[in-house]
Specification:
By secondary structure, this protein is of the alpha+beta class. The protein has 20 helices and 24 strands. It starts with 11 loop residues before the first strand and ends in a 5-residue tail after the last helix.
């Protein structure tokens, strides 16, 4: 295996090309056969929580990591082959281009595995990928070798050969910045001019006559449809760059046969896309900088809440520069963003609106985070959960302990408790069926409340207790063997987040999967420690 893998990544694998429904529990079942696993994390979209199609699997031992990489690469889960490689979190290693080659003109039948098999003869491969879309292979891919010498051998032997009927190009991979710099350099010297917005009475001869005044013209082409009618745009290719430049300076914005025309440098599709993407990123970055700390993420919205209603609900706390509910196919996705003019206004809104009932649902309101900030937060939170786990049942209370008196009081049917009201429990108070509940200063909650009504949940003084009683059966239906331990983890979350889980089965299942990974990681770590102790003679207390 690669000696160049950073020490801190030695036991971590990157697993890509995952089916959207593959979760941590499924990956644990797959990879645990290779050895004890410390953690598994499927990376998800910050807003929708949908899988991004890749994950990280962290083993206890490097030897087990190597075994998984050697024996499980390209194995199929949910109909899609896995793409496994050593995790390299340092972007400079991935983007430097050292040892990385680019292959294009690939036959449609070539997939990740066949590309790997073809190029593995030249040296150890760190990663290999054929780029695909919904229609399959896009005809190009990348192979990243451990050593640059292997990449050079592959380029020398494979460039220009026939591979499954297609003559492939194999060359050194160039980082995006380098490719963009080359495009910009080419843009400074051009001869082809693009003209648009002229009428259908302008043909090749007309364009040649008008633009021939600026220099020698090699070719002219007015683009037409199937019937031969002009599409209103075309190209003029000059012999010299200076003539093409002069034509743009003199003709852009001029009127030709009654129409104001646009004249500019002709661009290839890739160049136009790169330019538009750069402009979009600049606009996006400007908005993020402007709204830093003042942009709110609001979820658990009713379906009929639109931009206007969202702005109206949060307008009391300051001046709103934008309010938007995210939509898909004309329907609300249940979340949106509100941007204030200052962080102070945004913080006021969070304090007042998080957990507030709007129509029938409690809102979840928080300061919006960038992708990097959210990932850092999730990683920190995830590791804290793992470290919070203690040995055996002392680490996490089981189902009985969760439903016991000292945690929360179960709501009894009307026939069992008559007119008795429920109160928050007193620590270590003992209860006997023949006794009333102990008195307290807390406001009583009348028996008979429907705990499926979220407005009651949000207003009840014993909210956490009632949330627990509602949550536990749902968790038990998903994962009955670990229901108590999972519920205990989930009940430590923010009340608004728990309410959202009760409303959203998808969110609940996602959180249950996370909790399962935490528990399984602890069990694996405990088993590994026992194995180490047994070989060293150390007794486990």
């Amino acid at each position: 295996m690669s000696a160049s893998v950073p020490h801190f990544e030695m036991s971590t694998l990157y697993v890509g090309d995952l089916h959207p429904e593959v979760n941590e529990a499924m990956l644990y079942e797959k990879f645990s056969s290779a050895g004890p696993i410390l953690s598994i994390r499927v990376c998800r979209d910050l807003v929708t929580c949908r899988s991004l199609g890749y994950a990280y699997v962290n083993f206890l031992l490097r030897a087990d990591t190597e075994r998984a990489l050697d024996t499980m690469n390209f194995d199929i889960i949910n109909g899609k082959p896995l793409r496994i490689m050593w995790s390299q979190r340092d972007p400079s290693l991935r983007k430097s281009g050292v040892g990385n080659i680019f292959i294009k003109n690939l036959a449609k039948s070539i997939d990740n595995k066949s590309l790997y098999d073809t190029f593995s003869v030249f040296g150890n491969i760190l990663s290999c990928k054929v780029v695909t879309d919904e229609n399959g292979s896009r005809g190009f891919g990348f192979v990243h070798f451990e050593k640059s010498e292997a990449a050079k051998r592959a380029i020398a032997k494979m460039n220009g050969i026939l591979l499954k009927g297609s003559r492939v190009f194999v060359g050194q991979f160039k980082p995006r910045k380098e490719r963009e710099a080359e495009l910009r350099a080419k843009a400074n010297i051009f001869t082809n001019v693009y003209i648009k917005n002229f009428g259908d009475d302008v043909d090749d001869e007309c364009l040649k006559e008008v633009f021939g005044e600026f220099g020698s013209v090699l070719s002219v082409s007015v683009m037409t449809d199937g019937s031969g009618k002009s599409k209103g745009f075309g190209f003029v290719n000059f012999e010299n760059f200076e003539d093409a430049k002069k034509a743009i300076e003199k003709m852009n914005g001029k009127v030709l046969n009654g129409n104001q025309i646009y004249v500019g440098r002709a661009q290839k599709k890739l160049e136009r896309q790169s330019e538009l993407k750069h402009k979009f990123e600049q606009i996006k970055q400007g908005k993020l900088t402007k709204c830093k700390g003042a942009n709110l993420y609001v979820k658990n919205l009713e379906d009929d809440i639109d931009d206007r209603r969202l702005r109206e609900e949060l307008s009391l706390f300051g001046t709103i520069s934008s309010a938007r509910v995210m939509m898909e196919a004309g329907h609300s996705k249940g979340f949106g963003f509100v941007c204030y003019t200052s962080p102070e206004e945004a913080n006021k809104a969070v304090m007042a609106m998080n957990g507030k009932i709007v129509i029938t649902k409690p809102l979840y309101v928080a300061i919006a985070q960038s992708k990097d900030e959210r990932q850092a937060f999730l990683t920190k939170n995830y590791m804290e959960r793992i470290s919070a786990v203690r040995d055996g049942d002392n680490a996490i209370l089981n189902y009985r302990k969760i439903t016991s008196f000292n945690n929360f009081i179960p709501i009894l049917p009307q026939s069992q408790c008559g007119n008795v009201h429920l109160y928050k429990p007193v620590v270590r108070a003992k209860y006997h069926p023949s006794q009333n509940w102990p008195a307290s200063n807390q406001k009583p909650i009348p028996v008979g409340h429907d705990i499926s009504n979220v407005s009651v949940l949000a207003s009840a003084t014993t909210q956490k207790n009632i949330l627990g009683e509602k949550l536990v059966p749902l968790v038990q239906s998903i994962h009955p063997t670990l229901a108590g331990k999972i519920s205990r983890i989930l009940l430590e979350m923010d009340d608004a987040e728990i309410l959202h889980m009760l409303e959203s089965p998808e969110s609940l299942r996602s959180k249950v999967d996370e909790a399962v990974v935490v528990l399984q990681a602890h069990q694996a770590k405990e088993a590994a420690q026992k194995a180490v102790n047994s070989t060293t003679g150390v007794k486990t207390v």
